[in-house]
Amino acid sequence: DDAEALGTQKQQGHDLSPEALALLDMAGGNPFFVDQLVRLEQEGGLPGRLKRRIELLDARLDRLPIHLRQLLQRLAVHGGRVPIDRLTAAFEYSLEELDAQVVALEDMGLVDTSTGWVSPSHALVEDAVLAGMPAEIRREAHERYLAGIAQITPQSIGEAIRHALGTDDDQYAADLLEVGASVAWSGLDADRAVQWLQLALQKSRLLWGRGDLGMEAHTRITVELGRRLAEVLRQRGDTSTSEAVLREVQSFVSLEQPSLAAAIAMDQSRHVLTKGNIATAEEQLEQALRLSMQDEEATWLHCELIYRLGEIASRRGQYDRALSLFSE
Q1: Residue 236, SS3 per DSSP
Q2: CA-to-CA separations, 237 to 63, 147, 168, 172, 199, in angstroms, rounded
Q3: Predicted model pTM
Q4: pLDDT number for residue 30
Q5: What is the mean pLDDT of the chain?
Q6: Exposure string for 90-121, b = 16+ CB within 10 A, e = fewer
Q7: Theoretical Cys-Cys bridge with 27: which of 33, 62, 67, 69, CB 3.0 to 4.6 Å?
């Protein structure tokens, strides 16, 4: 009744505190959150920060029966909408028992089933549930969902990434993020491609720092992720960030890895050439070519650099030199 009265006051234009108005707007029609708002007002005031609000929501969620709390935790870990059969695989309850629990949570305003699937009714509910879960339980829940994905496809890659990140398996998460970025980029979702490549690079840097793999192998992985991210950023027109990423991954390269240094120099020359500084770009490519010749296995890079030097010669009008380079 108090929650309904508070909503009515707002609809009728009555004066409410700025905090109450802000929180009502955030409630998104969720009666659970509106009810919590009323309780907080009755207790003498509203918290001013989201972290505190989530903590208070979590304290109330802790009073749920254990079976309902566990179901809500599974929903929060999954994220988004969940088909009911995915839940039956994670619990020992029958479909009828799960249906009854979902109805109980829906009556409390904690879940939404309007689409035929189940999801937390509000992002704040999901955040509060996740914040209140012990790390080990949350990790195990992510592992169960990840194991339930039979095959990684363009349709399932986003879900797989979410759960891989939740399992604390940084290597697998980085691998999935790299694959996901390729899928996103091919689907013209540049923002998602950048987001996933940034996360993959972050995970790869952590693994490099821990020395979980051979240093040389993991340096190569980290540099290649950085180069891919830099290229996507360049194609989006964010040249300053792209150049910054190349400078960052350059710091990972040692003198014993000339082909990696050459590849980064080649990428940097592309930025310089875009700015119209042909002489500097040519100088960088020649330096990269000398580096690539120190690695007998970098034939592909050697050829790519020669080809790009031929393109610059052609732009300069040096057609005989360009033809000679292309022939080589």
Answers
A1: helix
A2: 51, 39, 33, 30, 20
A3: 0.63
A4: 57
A5: 79
A6: beebeeeebbebbebbeebbbbbbeeeebbbb
A7: 33
Alpha carbon 207 to its chain's center: 17
Predicted confidence (pLDDT) at residue 260 exceeds the cutoff of 60: yes
> Would you say 112 and 123 are in contact if contact means Cβ atoms under 8 Å apart?
no
Tokens representing residue 191 in the block: 């923002």
- The tokens describing 62, both together, are 């802790």
Write the pLDDT tens digit of every residue in 189-229: 888 888 888 888 888 877 776 665 556 667 788 888 888 89
Cite the DSSP H helix spans in the chain: 2-11, 18-27, 31-42, 50-61, 66-78, 84-88, 95-107, 123-131, 135-147, 157-166, 170-186, 190-210, 215-236, 239-250, 258-274, 278-292, 299-315, 319-327
The pLDDT value recorded for residue 307 is 92
Reading the block at residue 265, the tokens are 């120099």
Q: Check the CA dihedral 262-263-264-269 and report its sign.
A: positive
Pairing of strands 119-120, 111-112: antiparallel
